[in-house]
Amino acid sequence: MSGAGGARAELAELARNAEDFRLVELPAPAPTDRAAAVLMLFGVLDALPATRGAADVVSADLDVLLLSRAATLRAHPGQVAFPGGRLEAGDDGPVAAALREAREETGLDPAGVEVLGVLPAVPLAFSQHVVTPVLAWWQRPSAVGVVDVAESAAVFRAPVADLLDPSRRGVTVVRRDGREWRGPAFLVDDVSGEFLVWGFTALLLDAVFDRLGWTEPWDRTREFALPV
Known about the structure:
This protein has four helices and eleven strands. It has helices at residues 4-16, 94-106, 160-163, 199-212; strands at residues 34-43, 63-69, 80-81, 84-86, 113-118, 122-124, 129-138, 152-159, 169-176, 179-190, 193-197. Strands 1, 2, 3, 4, 5, 6, 7 and 8 form an eight-stranded mixed sheet that branches. Strands 9-10-11 form a three-stranded antiparallel sheet. A hairpin with a 4-residue loop joins strand 6 and strand 7 (129-138).
């Protein structure tokens, strides 16, 4: 089992050897796609451990920072996501954009964040963005919370041991125009409620967990209903 320091080392190794990291086979980005970045921030975020205790591969105090988007947003309302957003003119690349967006969305102090590296950018045709995941470790945690209620409904730590719990894992199914898309999903409990992590965020977590060898066997036929 990896303690917090061991998990940091494994994440850093992933960042150093991420050239062949892929979520799924995706089409090449279109010339009009916008560049974006998300912050995958791991660390010991507070004194509250996972509810299940330690998993076989990670300690109970390892967490990842997530937020729930406001239900009033036009794009992906109510979905759980990593802090992040589009690159702006003043951003010096995806790392700067991910840190800026995280500060604006959650109030975290970027000075306490150790950037471990970036994963290959992911083209998302449905949102017309090319998203660069930024892997990071929270060396000196700072207070976080909802900064703008028009943007976020909740900001919370998600214990990785809970995310890995097979009883909290399943798939979501999107059926549209005669086609079906199935993707991994996670149930997360927080003081503000229970959240379903699905879509791009769940795909990214699932791929990272698989690559690090953290994944526990789970029922891939179990379906979670999408939030209304």
